[in-house]
Amino acid sequence: MSSTFRGVLRLLAVMFTVAVSITVSGCAVGPAYHPSQTAMPAAWVGSVPETAAENVVDMAHWWSVFHDPILESLVTQAVASNLDLKLAESRIRQARAARSAAVAGLGPAVSANSSFTRSRTSPGGSSASKTYGATDGTLSSQYQAGFDASWELDIFGGVRRNVEAANADLQASIESRRDVLVTLAAETAVNYIDLRACQQQIVIARENLLAQQRTAELTRKLFKTGFYSALDTANADALTATTAAQIPVLETLARQYIYSLSLLIGREPGALMTELTPPSGIPAAAPSVPVGIPADLLRQRPDIRMAEAQIHAATARIGVVTADLFPKFTLSGAAGFMNNDFTSWFDWVNRFWSFGPSASWQIFDTGKTRANIEQQKALEEQSVITYQQTVLTALQEVENALISSTQEYERRKALTDAVTANRKAVDLAIRLYSDGQTDFLNVLQSQRSLYTSEDALAQSNRNVSTNLVALYKAVGGGWEN
Fold first, then answer.
1. Fewer CB within 10 Å: N-end or C-end of the chain?
2. Average of pLDDT values for 1-18?
3. Are 187 and 473 in contact (CB under 8 A)?
4. Over the chain, what is the mean pLDDT?
């Protein structure tokens, strides 16, 4: 190897070292990102349920507090097969690839090339060919192979800001998947609870229908004695028909809840019919949610964390576009072999090389770059506003869940007492009516009130459980690091 070529290699090594030093130590234009300082309330407005020390809830798998194997199986299937979750996972892979592409911008680009050229020159194009009678041109071949390299030095940090933005985008994608997990677990639980409540309402409707049919039969028997009016029979039949009309509506709702659960686990609507059609009780659990303090939401809720990452990405991109205001410096070079004879193409004497730095600076673009900077600043401002809105929405969701849970417990207590009283009233009204001591209107009223209160109690039991699910979701339960 000649001393000249060795000198070139040493010079390239020095330039490489200098380039790395400049890239690493160079400044990065644009504002530096600082985590948002959000003022949070010191405590919740609503009353917070107490969590016993011996009943510590695993927030990542909060649905296990209902002790319902079918519910736990459905959530597991949803996490494994839900299409929204798969879509979120695909976006994470996309963000990882985008980050890798951004990181690649920090290094040099090298390309290999090879070419063969066969050419003929015109006889008139060469003074040597301008002899009298010359009719043939000159034929020549050229073989070339080598490498081209270029490296844009990130002196002003535009590429590093782009990598920073890509990292923030990746984190936002991860938090988005976690948010899908939180929502998915909650929707699965709510649909399952709604299904069981609807099935319970069907049971209640059928039991009341059977009781009302017995009462209608009683009115027909008493009518035959001649001491009771046909109006009693007509009213009894009307009440029976009204109750019977509720059952198809409830059965339709139950089917729709099953279809929704099938969709959540990524299967066809009828996939769960056999498993979920048999009725079961409404899942219930103690309100032992470790709510914590409002500031905990910033750490627990994936949607807030995602909004924070989006601010980071938008801030970094201000630096990306700001770097366009400054000059760009590039190291470029080429090396290879070139010859007119294929047999001696790669002889050392046929080598060639070139290298050198270059600089470019766009000094006028009719304000395009500064407009891009202002646009990105506006996008950062929007991301900050979105973050603030997300935090306020999270606080509202927790407060709504707290007040709903507290008030529904009180409502359920009252409805339980109402059901007990209405059952006594029905028994008493039927006995008095059979003995001729009261009219049938009291029987109708008592049976109607019993059905209404039992149905309302079933709905209240559902609300207690769904409010508990809403509280777990509001505090960010359903995912783990």
1. C
2. 51
3. no
4. 88
Question: For residues 327 and 319, what is the distance between their CA atoms, to the nearest angstrom?
Answer: 14
Stated pTM of the model: 0.86
DSSP 11-60: HHHHHHHHHHHHHHHS---SPPP--------SS-SSPPPP--TTS---GG
Q: Which residue type, as a one-letter code, is found at position 406? A: T
Least confident piece of the model among 23-37, 323-337, 416-430, 435-449: 23-37
Evaluate if residue 11 carries a pLDDT over 60.
Answer: no
Looking at residue 17, what is its pLDDT? 56
| Listed residue (173, 170, 177) closest to 84, CA to CA | 177
* The pLDDT of residue 23 is above 80: no
The pair of structure tokens assigned to 187 is: 């929707």
Note the helical H segments in 225-353: 230-264, 273-276, 297-300, 302-322
Count, in order, helices (H) and strands (E) of the chain. Answer: 10, 4
Domains of the chain: 25-119+141-474 (1.20.1600.10)
β-strand partners of 84:
none
Cα(179)–Cα(175) distance, rounded to whole angstroms? 6
Q: How many CB atoms lie under 10 A from the CB of residue 1? A: 7
Indicate the pLDDT class of residue 128, thresholds 50, 70 and 90: very low
Listing DSSP states for 443-469 in one string gives HHHHHHHHHHHHHHHHHHHHHHHHHHH
Q: What is the pLDDT of residues 459-472, one digit of tens each?
A: 999 999 999 999 99
Q: Which two tokens stand for residue 88?
A: 């979120």
The total of other beta-carbon atoms located within 10 Å of residue 26's CB is: 14
At residue 111, the 3 state secondary structure works out as strand
Q: List pLDDT tens digits, range 146-178.
A: 888 888 888 899 999 999 999 999 999 999 999
Q: Which helix (H) or strand (E) holds 387?
A: helix 368-434
- DSSP, collapsed to helix, strand or coil, labels residue 110 as strand
Rounded CA separation 73/140 (Å)? 77
